Amino acid sequence: MAAADNVRLTIRLNATDNVITARTELLPGTPIPGENVTVAQPIPAGHKVATRPIAAGEAIRKYDQIIGFATEAVAVGEHVHVHNVEMQDFERDYAFGKDAKPTAYFNNSEQATFQGFRRSNGSVGTRNYIGVLTSVNCSATAAKYIAEALTPEIMAKYPNVDGVVALTHSTGCGMAGDGEGYANLQRVLWGFARHPNFAGIVMVGLGCEVNQIDFLLEAYGIERGPRFQTMNIQDTGGLRKTVERGASIIKEMLPEANKAERGPCPASELTLALQCGGSDAYSGITANPALGEAANLLVRHGGTAVLAETPEIYGAEHLLTRRAVSQEVGEKLIERIKWWEEYTSRNGGEMNNNPSPGNKRGGLTTILEKSLGAAAKGGTTNLTGVFKYGEPINTKGFVFMDSPGYDPCSITGEVASGSNVVCFTTGRGSVYGCKPAPSLKLATNTTMFNRMSDDMDINCGAIVDDGVSIEAMGQQIFERILEVASGSKTRSEEHGMGDNEFIPWQIGAVM
């Protein structure tokens, strides 16, 4: 971040930009030191001020990138936002692999470690849950009752088990038995069934649904056993018998699950879900680039960082393709971008439907501006892979997973893909929690951090307010990730959140 004498009033991100960002509410007549600008209109905190005359149709530049085009002439000192900026198509140079470079991995003696749960198949968990998965919404109540049957008094006997969580959803039937929506759901269920943060899984169906449990097991080669058992309500004899049997199965799992102990594991066993939600103009200035620096550190230690939310890299995808390790990887990302353009079009929408109203109140004007800030979460290392929603991630390094920008839905896919820790940046404020993967909240600004301190884990607003460097904040985030992976609770875990945020991505007709 470039900053000069004007740091107390505004932030300039690049010398070529024709806008700057207000750090606080600016009143008309306020001079901006170092910019030769006098504020002409009220400018809310986080919003943009023109620093030179901008003609109608001229590009608005921030981060030395195009974030939109002026719909009318804008004078120096005027407010630049949705009232005078629009989206337009423009050429982006994908330059596949042009900026890829060797990764500076840490040597073995410098390898960071954490205390994790090493599973029998070699995977490593950061938590030790038992899960009740549903194949269909029709078994959701049964799953919740099964989890509730394992009372606090029972669970107190098994201190090494983090809890029993029912993961229910709103689909599984009234859908096509093949195609994108069906594949999404099956990948998510398979991903959770084999997730290393679970010591055991019970999957519950109704019996007559489209998403048959046996189909899932056959498609993904899942075998029933002591850690993975299935049942359906119709064959079991109804709700009461299903709850009784499900609770009995879990009671049999608990002693073995309780034997799990944490032990030293290399940071290379961490897969970190990168997420932002309730964003504001500070997201791309503080928390996102700081999280990107933490992602760089994780990659250098041999781990994996997963960027998602395809609509929220739209307009910034060229910055990722330039870091792709191959043209094939870069083209996979562009194929997903084109899919989204067609998907939104056929549903009567457009990619610039995002940012949300809250994002706009926080100063974000277009999806291009939001995307440039959101992409910063991915750091600067090479893009090593691109994956479908919930697809198993089988490569190390910085990767991308296709998903909507809807946070619970996106993170559900990242966890299904193998993420065992989540970092979630937020500027407006988000109270998201996740089971079975712990979720760290990174505040973009000090004002919101102080207002919602019960929900925020780290204040990245210190970058602007206290002069903390991006690198130092990234190191702080990385160290906190290791602590959380070792068992330290996040704010959302202290609140007991995460039971209701399991949201598989639904695509296709409901029939």
What does this structure look like?
The chain has helices spanning 140-149, 152-155, 180-193, 213-220, 233-236, 239-258, 287-300, 317-321, 327-346, 357-361, 367-374, 407-416, 446-451, 462-465, 470-485, 491-494, and strands spanning 10-11, 19-22, 31-32, 37-38, 48-50, 59-62, 65-70, 79-80, 85-86, 113-118, 124-125, 129-134, 163-167, 198-205, 228-232, 263-266, 271-276, 304-307, 383-387, 397-401, 421-426, 439-443, 458-459. With 511 residues, it is of the alpha/beta class. The protein has 3 domains: 5-86, Archaeosine Trna-guanine Transglycosylase, Chain: A, domain 4, CATH 2.30.130.110; 120-263, 3-Layer(aba) Sandwich (Rossmann fold); 267-494. A hairpin with a 4-residue loop joins strand 3 (31-32) and strand 4. The longest helix is centred in the middle third of the chain and has 20 residues, at 239-258. The N and C termini lie far apart (51 Å). Mean pLDDT is 95; it is low at 1-7.
